[in-house]
Each structure stands twice: as structure tokens, then as C-alpha cells.
Amino acid sequence: MTDLFAPAMKSSDYAETASAAYRAALSVIEQVEPRIAEATRAELTDQRSSLKLIASENYASPAVLLTMGTWFSDKYAEGTIGHRFYAGCQNVDTVEALAAEHARELFGAEYAYAQPHSGIDANLVAFWSILAHRVETPSLAEHGAKSVYDLREDDWEKLRRAFGEQRALGMSLDAGGHLTHGFRPNISGKMFHQRSYGTDPETQLLDYDAVRAAAKEFKPLVLIAGYSAYPRRINFATMREIADEVGATLMVDMAHFAGLVAGKVFTGDEDPVPHAHITTTTTHKSLRGPRGGLVLATKEYADSVDRGCPMVLGGPLSHMMAAKAVALAEARTAEFRTYAQNVADNAKALAEGFLRRGATLVTGGTDNHLVLLDVSGLGLTGRQAESALLDAGIVTNRNSVPSDPNGAWYTSGVRFGTPALTTRGFGTAEFDRVAELVIDVLKNTTPAATKSGAPGKAKYVLADGVADQTKAASAELLDKHPLYPGLEL
Ligand code: DSN
């Protein structure tokens, strides 16, 4: 490990203290439910011994992990800082204020809300906040009400109708967008009339003219930007221009690339925060914090964002807000900037490693933290490729490619991300070796025939010996870059 918490882990004091803390914690757990202690140990062993390439995962520091396991978990604190519906929230106020302060400073945001429990919660807070600000606030005034609590039932009925008539425009799932950006089976696709924009059929790149044309025709209340499987950067200044042209609120979901924004790899037009009205994120992906969400907003949206609880959130998870504050403090360091740059450099090395070995990549490469490999040319579905890689100790996830003929279940792609292994200290040479191992596994995988003799979409055959050879080769890389060095349970 070469970055922020690695030097600390390498110092024997820190590693010994962290080891003692975890040994003590596990022995306390063991006395109540030994199988949980055992599963917790097994999870560390598994994480240490596999090549974790899931683009949305990472390894949080011991400081972040330990902060989650405290008595803050036991406190109810519905409300906002200094304005709670429960007594005795003074320490929660301290924690939430620190998390928000770090978030504001780190991202240069006017307002930060640290309560969302996850990314979907952060997006729900954003959607409701936009509706409240754009639809409800004028309606409230019209009804002579100061807050939603003053409304009568027939006023609510009008509001419900107004909400239901609103439109959202987001990136389609197969182009790399996220379920919560208006996908039909998600609530975002039900609370809004929804339309999606895709990518250029030739280049597979975002086509801003097409987004503009769709926005002009559809006139959305919310223009959503952001992705979970698009391997390129977005020009958020252009997205804001489009939003302004049609009177939309620009909401950016930066969950995947928040670490690259925090680490100043994405700056200027590629930094969403100065351009979006509302920016949401998770805290556990490239940002390397605890599982959770965060909403950043301009001042005009602050009041409505603050109503996240009770509108769509339960009581805040104070222990998680504390861990977010610790992670955000880590992300404000120079070491984190180096980490973020390494994440992007490593993704390029991985993409180039794939391309040199004849692979097909969606958009032909990457300039963020993820690479989307199209495995259809190898005669495989994403599901077969994902399973064969897992047999060989390489953990990834299958993913649709644009206009995927295999749909969202079998898919034709596999998504790879560099945040986790970069935390372990992998550099560009190691990622080139990872590309070699991946391609070797896939070239030795064939679809198993179905009863009719046609190739199936799920079953596969991995040639004998390849899984073991790959695991041995991975072990060499992993041993050189141990996870939590010095941590012994
Ligand atoms: N599950 C996350 C991902 O893998 O991208 C997004 O919600």
C-alpha cells in the first residue's frame, strides 16, 4: 500500500494497535455469535486473496472502519444540526457538522447534507428536494402555507398531481447510467415521466448535441448526469448550459467518480460541483469511505435538502456520519490526491493492456476509473465471463454494453475498476499484468452447449488448470501489495 493509510499501517505501532482493536472486537463478538466472528475473519481472508476489480468497491482505512462500530449507532437524531426531534443530540450535532464541513471544504460546495444512508437515498433526497423547490414552493405560496405541514389534504392532492406531471431526463442504463436515474423499475422512473439519452452509436461517447435535442423536446424538470458504467469524463459545464436552456435543474450523481473529484483529477468543466444545482454521491466507492450517501447543493436548495429526513429518510445513522467525517478528512490530504491520480493512471494502463491483447472496449478506452470490456467478440456473455473470472479469483461484475443484445441479466460486458487495487498499491505494471491474466482466462473459456446444441448464455467451460495458474499468478501480485499490512487477527 503506497498511499494515505499505508504508511500508517506499515508503522508497527499503528498495525499493532489496529490488530489489538480487531482481535478484541472479534473476541467480544465471538462470545455472543461465534459464526459472525468467523464470517468476519473469512471475509478478510477472501478480500486479501482475490483481485478485487469491482469498480464500485474499495478498502476503507482502519480508522474509518473502527469509527463505524460505536455507540453513535444507538442514538436517534431525526432533524438537522441543532434542530432535532430527540433530546441529547449534542454529540451527533458535532459529528454531523464535521462531516458536512469536510464535505463542503473538500468539494467546494455551498451546502452539504451527510444523512443519506446510501446512494439511492441521496438521489431520493435530491429528487424530492428538487420537487419541493421547483414545484412545491410556488404551490405552497399559492396555498398561503409556509411549510408542507400547513397544507390541507386537498392541497396535498394538487401537489401530488403536480409531482406526477414532472419529467426527468437521464442517461440510459445500457449506456452506463444508473437504475436511480429514471429506470422504469426504480421509483425514479415512476415519480417522474422519464426519458433517457444514450451515447453515439458509432463512438459510444456521450453526444451533447443529442442530449440538448432531447432536452429541448422533452423539457425535463431535472436533467440527470452521472453514470455507473460509462468509462469517460463528462463536461458538466455543457450539461449545465443544456439544463439552463430548458429551465431544468442539473443534478449530478458522482457516486462512481467522487474520489477523482475529491482528488482534483476532475477539475474545471469535469468537476460537477460548481456546475450542478445538486450533486449526490456515495461515500464508499472511489471516495474510500464508509457505506453511505452525501448530498451537495447550492444554497437555494439547502432548505429542501434538509427535509430529507423525514421526507424519504429515517433517523440518521450517526455512527456512519462519524465515519464519513473521518473518510472526508482523509480525502482532504495530499496523499489522497496522489491516490486519485493513480486510480486514473491505472485504469488507462488496464485499458491499454486489454487493447494490446486484442480486446474490444466500450468507447475504445477510458479516462476515469473504470473499463468496460465487450466480451461478445470472444463468443461469451458477460455472465459467463464474470463466472469464469471468479473461478480464477478475479472479482468483477457483468454489465450491459450500449444496445446490448443480451439484456441486463446476461449482458455482453464486464466492468473493471481500479480504486480497490490502487488502494493496495498496485501501479501501472501490475494492472498490465492483471489485463494479461483476465484475457488469458477469457480466451480459455468457452460457452457450454445447451440441450439443443446451441451455445448457452450462462454455463461455460474454463480450460483445466487455468483457474489455479491464474490464482497463483494473482497471489504473487497480491503478496507484494498486502491488504492492511501488519494487521493480524
Ligand atoms: N452498485 C453500484 C455499482 O456497482 O455501480 C451502483 O449502485
What do you see in this structure?
The structure is a single chain. The protein contains 20 helices and 17 strands. The protein has 489 residues and is an alpha/beta fold. It has two domains: 260 residues, Aspartate Aminotransferase, domain 2; 144 residues, Aspartate Aminotransferase, domain 1 (Alpha-Beta Complex). The strands form five sheets. Strands 4-10-9-8-7-5-6 form a seven-stranded mixed beta sheet, sandwiched between helices. A four-stranded antiparallel beta sheet has the order 11-12-15-14. A two-stranded parallel sheet has the order 1-13. Strand 2 and strand 3 form a beta hairpin. Helix 15 runs parallel beside helix 19. The structure holds D-serine. D-serine binds next to loops.
Write the layout of secondary structure elements.
Elements: H1 5-10, H2 12-30, H3 34-49, E1 51-52, H4 62-68, E2 79-80, E3 83-84, H5 90-107, E4 111-113, H6 119-142, H7 153-164, E5 167-171, H8 188-191, E6 193-197, H9 208-218, E7 222-226, H10 236-246, E8 249-253, H11 258-262, E9 278-282, E10 293-297, H12 299-305, H13 308-311, H14 318-331, H15 334-356, E11 360-361, E12 370-374, H16 382-391, E13 394-395, E14 397-399, H17 407-410, E15 413-417, H18 419-424, H19 428-443, E16 445-449, E17 455-462, H20 466-480
Parallel strand pairs: 1-13, 5-6, 5-7, 7-8, 8-9
Antiparallel strand pairs: 2-3, 4-10, 9-10, 11-12, 12-15, 14-15, 16-17
Helix pairs in contact: 2-3, 4-14, 5-14, 6-12, 9-10, 15-19, 19-20
The chain binds D-serine (DSN).
